[in-house]
UniProtKB/TrEMBL annotation:
Keywords: Acyltransferase, Cytoplasm, Transferase. One of its GO terms (biological process) is protein catabolic process. It is found in: Cytoplasm. This is Leucyl/phenylalanyl-tRNA--protein transferase. Its EC number is 2.3.2.6. InterPro entries: Acyl_CoA_acyltransferase (IPR016181), Leu/Phe-tRNA_Trfase (IPR004616), Leu/Phe-tRNA_Trfase_C (IPR042203), Leu/Phe-tRNA_Trfase_N (IPR042221). The keyword Cytoplasm applies. One of its GO terms (molecular function) is leucyl-tRNA--protein transferase activity. It is an enzyme of class 2 (transferase). GO terms for cellular component: cytoplasm. It comes from hydrothermal vent metagenome. NCBIfam families: aat. SUPFAM superfamilies: Acyl-CoA N-acyltransferases (Nat).
């Protein structure tokens, strides 16, 4: 991935506190950093996601805004279920709920150690901002329980027919994968265009996510955002594993 620092003239502009405008992400570097500063108000965050931009920064740094090229998307229906994972799904040992424990999910995502990473980018201000978006009906969680104990999950935002995935955690084998499978199935049934997984990871590619050019992502995002949103609580959403037909 090309670096924004390859050219001496490249400058990252600060955001205004008096406007929610962002630079055009189509002209950002491949790395994707296109602005810094601003705040994490709901209006700014929603404006950013609608433009294919998301915040990602470490505690003590200014807020950094990104739109990398390429982008990683999972199209519902293309989730890859391997034989070992199919056995987990068939076992029924995990139960899935939506929007019953959003704050717990985001806090687990912030505290679970991750290989090669010191600390977490889900800093307290980020947690507060996404909890507020959840209360406003934009952010949602998928929770995985084993014997009524929360053992895995994920969270993100939904607008139009796009789910913007943010982070996941797992305290038990395959629990976060079950959450992702449940999300993919439910959103597929509801006509969602794709789940935005942001940046490429081998784990997500192994589950069926595809790497697409940023311009294509932004085109598809514009189309998906024109469709009706599922604003409000998702607690009434349900999921039970159904064997795929071959």
């Amino acid at each position: 991935m090309a670096s924004m620092f390859d050219e001496e003239e490249y400058l990252i502009p600060p955001l205004s506190h008096y406007s929610y405008s962002f630079p055009n992400p189509r002209y950002a570097s491949d790395e994707g950093l296109l602005a810094y500063g601003g705040d994490l108000t709901s209006s700014r965050l929603l404006t950013a996601y609608k433009k294919g931009i998301f915040p990602w920064y470490n505690e003590g740094d200014p807020i950094l805004w990104w739109s990398p090229d390429p982008r990683l998307l999972l199209y519902p229906g293309k989730f890859k279920v391997r034989k070992s994972f199919r056995r987990v799904l068939r076992s029924g040992k995990y139960q899935v709920k939506f929007d019953h424990a959003f704050a717990k999910v985001i806090r687990y995502c912030a505290t679970v150690p991750r290989e090669g990473q010191d600390g977490s980018w889900i800093v307290p201000d980020m947690q507060e901002a996404y909890i507020r978006l959840h209360e406003e009906g934009f952010a949602h969680s998928v929770e995985v329980y084993r014997e009524e104990e929360l053992v895995g999950g994920l969270y993100g935002l939904a607008m139009g027919k796009v789910f913007f995935g943010e982070s996941m955690f797992s305290l038990a084998s395959d629990a976060s994968k079950v959450a992702f499978k449940a999300l993919s199935d439910v959103l597929g049934a509801k006509g969602y265009d794709f789940i935005d997984c942001q940046m490429k990871t081998d784990h997500m590619v192994g589950l069926g996510a595809e790497v697409v050019p940023r311009d294509r992502y932004l085109d598809e995002l514009e189309t998906a955002l024109q469709k009706p949103s599922d604003l409000g609580s998702w607690q009434h959403f349900t999921w039970n594993y159904k064997e795929e037909e071959w």
